Amino acid sequence: MGIIVHDSYQMTNGLVVSDYYINIDDIHIFKSDDVYSVSLKYKSFIDKNARDTDKKPFCEMNLILSTTTFENIGTQIYDEVKKRFENYTDCI
Question: What's residue 11's pLDDT?
Fold first, then answer.
């Protein structure tokens, strides 16, 4: 499960890509008192096939979020990542 981002992204080599695939990876969850802290990486690939065939991502970003409920934690994580993009489609 991931998202396809339709926004344009300019890579360090100057190429511009759109309709690229975002995968969420390396999730760590810690609990302190009544707050869950979630640390994760989301990785950008040219397309889903690039991710499925173990190609290197062209971008990796870290994200930390805090929540008071563990309920629907997967949805909370995806919703937080989606806030970083204007145009996207869920890729199930």
Answer: 87
- Domain count along the chain: 1
Residues in a beta bridge with 10: 16
And the tokens for 42?
């989301």
Distance CA 10, CA 58 (A): 10
pTM of the model: 0.88
User: Going by C-beta distance under 8 Å and a sequence separation of 6 or more, which residues neighbour residue 43?
Assistant: 22, 23, 24, 25, 51, 57, 59, 60, 61
- Token readout for 24 is 């969420």
pLDDT band at 39 (very low <50, low <70, confident <90, very high): very high
Range of the domain at 73: 2-91
